Amino acid sequence: MKKTGLIRILGLLALSLITAFPAVTVQAEEEVPYDTYNYNYWEDIVKTPAAYTPEGSVGGIDVGTTAFKEPKDFCISAEGEIYVADTGNDRIVVLDSQMKKVNRIIDTFTVDGVEDRFSAPYGVCVSENNELFVADSNNARVVVLTPGGEYKRVVKEPKSEILEDNFAFIPLKVTVDYADRIYVISKGAFEGILVFEADGTFSGYFGTIEVKISVWEKFWRRFASKEERSNTQLYIPTEFTGIDVDADGFIYASNIDSEGIQAVRRLNPQGKDVIQKGENGNVGGDIRIGIYGDYSGPSEIVDVVYRSKGMYSALDRKRGRIFTYDKEGNLLYIFGGIGLQDGTFQTPVAIEQNGEEILVLDAGRNVIMKFHETNYGSLINEAVGLRYDGDEKQAIDKWREVLRLDENNELANNGIGKAYLTAGDNENAMHYFELGMNKDYYSIAYKRYRNRILADNLGRILTGLIVLITAGLTVRRVKNRKRGKDREEGLL
Amino acid sequence: MKELLSKDKWKYAFHTVSHPADGFYEIRHRDRGSVAVALCLVILFSVTWSINRISAGFIVNDIDPRDVNSISELITVLLFFFLICIGNWSITCLMDGKGRLKDILIAVGYSTVPATVCILIGTILSRFVSEDEAAFYYMICGIGIAYTLFMMLVGIMTVHNFTLGKTLITLFLTVVALLLIVFIVLLIVDLVNQVYSFLHSIYQELLFRA
């Protein structure tokens, strides 16, 4: 009995020693407070190096003003100034490009000699022509100002026959294209994005999300009584949540897709969705999702930012992930997470790119979070950029570096394969396309490889065939003759 | 054993493939078949199946090679084979089937030959096709499997001396019997597990008190 007690005490001592001096763990290249992963061909989760690491955060007090209160949106002007829609404080805060100090605060402006204020300014945007657009949500208007805060004009609640009678204009997000057309997401406007001409006249809805009703639902509706039918939820399309515009005037708009398949749309000037989906046909964030618990369900994309060279990043408020896709809809990398640790979000609401940094506005922490690209992230960005420019050969070196950091990266393998294919090295191309699980391109490379072998050896193959045929014929003739002889002998 | 695996028996298995109706009739009435050969053929089928999964050409192969375990596949195939045969036997016994369990084993076992051969040919071919020629691979495998199913139908029909309609009904009932067997086996496994854990906890209790 005494012995066991001693052993127990010794064991406790050992345990406390282990916990007091944790074993030296192998330091990862980047220690980040979130998972960084990607999906492979089989849609399994594959851990990858971090593409972006947290670089601290900037709040209102850090830049020399009072703290932000539930900021909902921000944007970056061509000069690099950062405009934060400080929704809870009814003001627009303008930071310098280094995010070190406040340049100015816009909370009042004069309209015809009368002082006016914002009421819950929800969205903000600076146009190419250097005009500041503020979605002044509770005042049901979009205010246009100079970057300095001088009033220019206002876009009022639209009046049109196509709008419902009880339509309430509550602008949440706003963006402006090169032609000064104004795109506004209004709360509860399921028909799509509201488009205004430069002078503020309403020109219609844009990019309506079509409602999908499955055959199964249709089948049940047929059998349902009128009462049951009115009790079931209405099939209404989802609202848009975030909006951005690229240099060509295409609109990138995000929405919360309940199926997690398409959360980002790329809308052409006619309002048609022209986004490219990758091999798996998914631009909706996470592919493998849990079914139970708080952490389950598809990603809820709340904002999207067009980066450059066809790349765009989408922000998920459910799990705090940032998904980056290339022009072809390939998922490039995933980072970010919800939590209390530094570098994680509480309520991420908006995303922007500032040079090499990705900025995320957190309405829970009331700060802008900064993320800086790692070697891995910058290599992928550069390689994708080179491919976008059609410079596959240059990209091969970048992809090789990516492979060194992340051996199973399918995009990198495909990138190298494509470069080999253009160089005419079909065998190597096949090898890399197989590693990259790219059947289409493997097929092309294989066909060329096969044709080359056939063409090179045509003479030998034909000779062989002729030899075989003659041999076969001779053997048969000899056999026949022998059989004939046997028969003759048998007869005799 | 030697007699069961004799050259004649092997030859007869392939004769059955080309002449299913006559072949199965002689298996039932003149003992031309062999259970050992049938078992070998099923094992061969399982091996071919695993080969196909591991080394079919990249174009037609969507399987993560890490998922393939040929031993567990062999066990699955054999289990399924015996389940079908026993299920069919237990049903046909009640429905005036003339076949013995031996005949059913042989009929089902011999029927796998076309699938084995075609999948093997397809696997080799699949390494030399591009994406638009992959249809040939699927066609060859499809023909093999279709012919296997056809042979199984004819085999069961012949050894039991059934009409087509009655065969189809017994096949449906076979599936039901199969599910019943699986259900009962699972039930027994679960019960045995509970008894085991009960005994195990008694053992542990005794150990701790000692």
- Assign the CATH architecture of the largest domain in chain A: 6 Propeller
- Counting structural domains of chain B, the number is 1
Report on the biggest sheet of chain B.
none
Count of alpha/pi helices of chain A: 9
Low-confidence stretches of chain B: none
| Average pLDDT over all residues of chain A | 87
Uncertain parts of chain A: 17-29
Biggest interchain interface, per-side counts: A-B, 11 and 7 residues
The total strand number of chain A stands at 27
Name the structural class of chain B.
mainly alpha
Assess the beta-strand content of chain B as a share of residues: under 5%
| Number of structural units classed as domains of chain A | 3
The helix content of chain A is: 25-40%
Name of the top-level CATH class of the largest domain in chain A: Mainly Beta
How much of the residues of chain A is beta strand, in percent? 25-35%
Q: In total, how many beta strands of chain B?
A: 0
In angstroms, what is the radius of gyration of chain A? 32 Å
Order of helices and strands of chain B: HHHHHHH
CATH topology of the largest domain in chain A: Neuraminidase
- Shape descriptor of chain A reads elongated
